[in-house]
């Protein structure tokens, strides 16, 4: 075993046998923002064998305050977060197989890319995606580590299919907030705290020391010095539609999926098309220019500006429309732009 992991191997909880397991395991990370980048870097430094990371967004300057891995150059180039993360992670440890996916979590994508993972880490910024992840992890019987942070508060819980309550079981009982970081902000130390708790639980699962799992939902407010560890096992609901006896996985239904959403911390609307698309980016660029719309292409996405709003167009047909939180108006603008491109 490489001497680079010597200090980790000396820890009794891991040892030589544990490290051998770590280098053979596959972890999936849903989201490459604040939590995702901290978790990914720690796992790559620890020698995880395979890492799959998905994100729907790109790097901006406002990310640099709390999202490690990324640089000012990444923000200048507006690189997709998954691509930028892969670039930096491979510079840290070239022996790790990093699979970067620019896109949004879906049932088909999970089946293709994440169903073989040993553990999944939640690093998302919205409960819609978390509930989809919850149903998928339960369906494929993959342990996943919930994590969220807002302001100075953080929350994390390890969900083991068929053993613990799932996220749906907990939704009506736990202190989940409807606020977002654009209202309440977030400080970097709570991000690091949540990510650390998540990674420790991941390590326990990777080395197959299930008896060491915490087993409680953990809450921390770093500003008020409040720390709570809650035993929530009694909240496991036998009638839960996601994990109960007659489970239906309701959040995997496309009818449950919103086509528009306002991104956390930004005056930006995210739009996904009704059907999967694969745009020819060079063709789209030429059509934008033909319509006298400014266009910048970085090889992964297109930037244009229309009616004073910056629009980012991805290859899968998704778009980010900046400087608005009006989802109806953003959808109208999106359809106008796509319509112009289709008839150009």
TrEMBL record:
GO terms for cellular component: cytosol
Domain THIF-type NAD/FAD binding fold: 5-241
Pfam families per the UniProt record, alphabetical: ThiF
CDD domains xrefs: ThiF_MoeB_HesA_family
Record GO terms (molecular function): nucleotidyltransferase activity; sulfotransferase activity; thiosulfate-cyanide sulfurtransferase activity; ubiquitin-like modifier activating enzyme activity
Superkingdom of this protein's organism: Bacteria
Family: Belongs to the HesA/MoeB/ThiF family.
The protein's name in its UniProt record: Thiamine biosynthesis protein MoeB
Organism of provenance: Terrilactibacillus tamarindi
């Amino acid at each position: 075993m490489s001497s680079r992991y010597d200090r980790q191997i000396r820890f009794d909880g891991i040892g030589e046998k544990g490290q051998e397991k770590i280098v053979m395991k596959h972890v999936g990370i849903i989201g490459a923002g604040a939590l995702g980048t901290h978790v990914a870097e720690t796992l790559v430094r620890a020698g995880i064998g395979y890492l799959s990371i998905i994100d729907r967004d790109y790097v901006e300057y406002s990310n640099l305050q709390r999202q490690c891995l990324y640089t000012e150059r990444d923000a200048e180039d507006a690189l997709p977060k998954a691509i930028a993360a892969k670039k930096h992670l491979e510079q840290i440890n070239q022996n790790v197989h990093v699979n970067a996916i620019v896109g949004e979590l879906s049932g088909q994508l999970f089946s293709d890319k994440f169903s073989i993972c040993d553990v999944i880490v939640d690093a998302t910024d919205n409960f819609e995606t978390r509930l989809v992840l919850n149903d998928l992890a339960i369906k494929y019987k993959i342990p996943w580590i919930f994590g969220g942070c807002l302001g100075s508060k953080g929350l994390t819980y390890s969900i083991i299919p068929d053993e613990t309550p799932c996220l749906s079981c907990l939704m009506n009982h736990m202190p989940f907030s409807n606020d977002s970081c654009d209202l309440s902000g977030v400080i970097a130390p709570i991000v690091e705290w949540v990510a650390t708790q998540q990674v420790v639980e991941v390590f326990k699962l990777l080395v197959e020391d299930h008896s060491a799992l915490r087993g409680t939902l953990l809450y921390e407010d770093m500003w008020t010095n409040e720390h709570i560890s809650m035993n929530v096992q009694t909240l496991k609901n036998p009638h839960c539609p996601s994990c109960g006896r007659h489970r239906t996985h309701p959040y995997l239904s496309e009818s449950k999926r919103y086509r528009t959403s306002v991104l956390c911390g930004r005056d930006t609307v995210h739009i996904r098309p009704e059907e999967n698309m694969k745009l020819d980016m060079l063709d789209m660029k030429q059509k934008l220019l033909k319509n006298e719309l400014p266009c910048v292409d970085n090889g992964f996405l297109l930037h244009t500006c229309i009616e004073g709003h910056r629009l980012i167009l991805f290859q899968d047909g998704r778009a980010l429309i900046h400087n608005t939180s009006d989802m109806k108006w953003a959808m109208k603008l999106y359809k106008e732009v796509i319509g112009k491109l289709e008839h150009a």
